[in-house]
Amino acid sequence: MMYNELLTLTDGKATYEQFTEIEAVYMSKEAMTKEQAARLWKRRYGEKIVKPLAEEMRRVKESMEYNNPCEGCGEIVPIGEGVHYKEEGYTLCWKCACGGN
Length: 101
Known about the structure:
Elements: H1 3-9, H2 16-28, H3 34-45, H4 54-66, E1 67-69, E2 76-78, E3 83-85, E4 90-92, H5 94-97
Antiparallel strand pairs: 1-2, 3-4
């Protein structure tokens, strides 16, 4: 397998160092095709899914757990404030719960 062939199969994303590693595997396997080598490159070096950071996940989780939108006016109501109707599954701020007074 030539470096330019791997570049063609990976849309120009493979580096030469990556090519040398993939070529070593390719040369050691008699039945491996170039397409299989390209799939191997993609598994090893293709675009990785970026996972959210733990701190970011904590902030998102906290905002979901501790803040609820008021069903009346849409303002965010921290849990412990306003009136939360657990059975019905909604929250009203004190202003909306008291009828606007």
